[in-house]
Amino acid sequence: MDVIQIGILGVAGALLAVQFKSGKTEYGIYISLALSLFIFFAVVSRLKILVDLLAQIGAYIQMDAAYTGTLLKMLGITYVAEFSSAICKDAGYQTIAVQIEIFAKLAILVLSMPVLMALLSAIRDFLA
Question: Is 0.85 topped by the overall pTM?
Answer without folding.
Answer: no
